[in-house]
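Troubleshooting log. The previous structure file for this entry was overwritten by mistake, so regenerating from the original sequence record. Sequence copied from the archived sheet and checked twice against the printout by T.R.
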Amino acid sequence: MNNHLIAMIARELALRIDQVAGAVELLDAGNTIPFIARYRKEATGGLDEVQLRQIEARLAYLRSLLERKQTVLASIEEQGKLTPELRAAIEAAETLQQVEDLYLPYRPKRRTRATIARERGLAPLAELMLAQEIGADIDRLAGIYLTDEVTSVDDALAGARDILAEQVSEDAIAREIARRETQRDGMVLVRLAKAG
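Regenerated output below.
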């Protein structure tokens, strides 16, 4: 058992490390929570069923988090895109959501509109739009990227916007900000639909 996980659970639940270690050992041995609470109080320092269930739930979550981190790191490393900074960010992630947000740009993708736009050579236009250095001449600049597949300025701009939208949607920090703002200020509006 990872001592780091035991220490983390003990800190989060305001328990002693020896209590958590004893509970984890008994849970890993296949003992049930009622059995541990009634007959193994000496090994857990007298933890009750509620505390044991909290330990069990947190332990399961942290183990799945650790496993997911290893899977994500292996996948990104296999792609040859793992940097020391990315490794550190993934290892420091405290929730599955944070790990998934960091992994999103590296996850194998289906063929999206942004992928098609990149294949059509619109990535440089998207980068120029992102840098906001093109001013009012955007239509003329987009005209440079017209091809047999990109037949109009509107198509070129739409493709570049698709690329930018995908970049923003895959940015872990942008996702966290959007999630936080939605939780804080989000509102669900519901109206009764007419029958029929």
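The mean pLDDT is 92. Archived copy saved in two places this time.
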